[in-house]
Amino acid sequence: MNIPFDIIIQLFVVMCAIAAITVRDLLSAVMILGAYSFFMCLMWAQLGAVDVAFTEASVSAGIGTILLVAAVLKTTRRTKD
Amino acid sequence: MIASSDDIIIKTIARIFVPFIQLYALYVIMHGHYSPGGGFQGGVILGASMALLLITHGYDEVKRRFPENVVLLMGSVGVLIYAGIGLTCLLLGGNYLDYGQLSVILHVEPAHARSLGILGVELGVGFTVMAIMYSIFFDISTGGILPGDDKLNGELEDNG
User: How sure is the predictor about B155, in pLDDT bands with cuts at 50, 70 and 90?
Assistant: First the structure.
């Protein structure tokens, strides 16, 4: 176990999660969600679950970000609330 | 509607990168039973490479390489491979997806037959996931309206 690495990664995960739901620009929110997925991927790899980390990197950070960007481009970029 | 990008840097980089992405995806699929990865992850990477080609080179270029009916065919053939291997094991007297039974028709020992069986199943999963991921991205980004559908396109523009 590498305690400082764990604490830094978890700090970044929480920061990215809070930023993704508070930012006004939806395209920025999608990008921050991609960064969140990559930090989660690092955390899974640190915990020893390499297969889960691989899935997180390819599915959530890869194709999920692409799908959300496509959805944002088809709708509006600014939130109403 | 997805059009071809005007930027020559983006088009060139994408054209160089797509074969390497697909080669890596095939590596992930083929080594799925020894190392992390497998049919699902490799299929997602293959679908992402097709999505990159669709973003940069436009719909007309991708339609020439990977038409809609081929997408549907690959999605169906992947499921057929998966279910076919499973049912073959069932017919040979084992359980569903009991790859050891395949040694009778492959003429190899059961341990080798298990390795080949899981490889075939992962190839099927990879085909289906690639086709469906590409199809989902295509439907979201175009709204399901193709360039040939001029009548439907005009109606939507009138409403919007």
Answer: low
DSSP code of residue B100: G
The crossing angle, in degrees rounded to 10, of helices B110-142 and B39-65 is 50
Q: Where are the domains of chain A?
A: 25-81
Predicted interface score ipTM higher than 0.85: no
Is some CB atom of chain A closer than 8 A to the CB atom of B126? Answer: no
Residues forming a β-bridge with A78: A25
Structure tokens at A42: 């690092």
- Going through chain B in order, the beta strands assigned E by DSSP cover none
Which residue in A44, A54, A56, A67 has the most chain B C-beta atoms within 10 A of its own C-beta, making it the best mutation to test that interface? A54
Q: Is B21 on the interface with A (CB under 8 A)?
A: no
